């Protein structure tokens, strides 16, 4: 008789454990968020007379970084300065701005206020549009952008 009672208790405990395990709420995995600066020191950028700066934080071991830097370089003009800040040669700036993922691209004004940023690869079209948007925020509405419908 004792065996039957012990077996019954074991079965009940097992069933309760299974039910509780199934009802346990699993926390969603945490998502890594990458740091992107919101303000850069204009002295660090050596922006000169340009009104805008595209700063591209890169690494010499990153092939995507080279592509993003080349696309940014194509936008260099009298009003838009471009600076590639490579980890191996400018590690101090990567540390100062807590850059923990490359490529990190920021578009800032001459005071260093970041108006746009991207992490990872970017198309030339998206980069051009972002720079145009920060330089002239009304440009999107003047071109009949789909958001106006």
UniProtKB/TrEMBL annotation:
Name of the protein in its database record: Unannotated protein
Species name: freshwater metagenome
Entry-linked SUPFAM superfamilies: Thioredoxin-like (SSF52833)
């Amino acid at each position: 008789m004792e065996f039957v009672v012990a077996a019954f208790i074991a079965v009940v405990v097992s069933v309760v454990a299974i039910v509780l395990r199934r009802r346990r709420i699993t926390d969603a995995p945490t998502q890594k968020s990458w740091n992107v600066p919101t303000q850069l020191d204009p002295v660090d950028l050596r922006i000169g007379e340009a009104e805008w700066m595209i700063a591209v934080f890169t690494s010499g071991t990153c092939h995507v970084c080279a592509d993003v830097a080349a696309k940014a370089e194509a936008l260099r003009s009298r009003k838009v300065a471009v600076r590639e800040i490579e980890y191996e040669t400018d590690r101090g700036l990567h540390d100062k701005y807590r850059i923990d993922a490359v490529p990190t691209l920021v578009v800032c004004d001459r005071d260093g206020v970041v108006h746009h940023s991207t992490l990872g690869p970017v198309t030339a079209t998206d980069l051009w549009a972002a720079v145009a948007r920060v330089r002239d925020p009304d440009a999107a509405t003047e071109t009949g952008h789909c958001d106006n419908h």
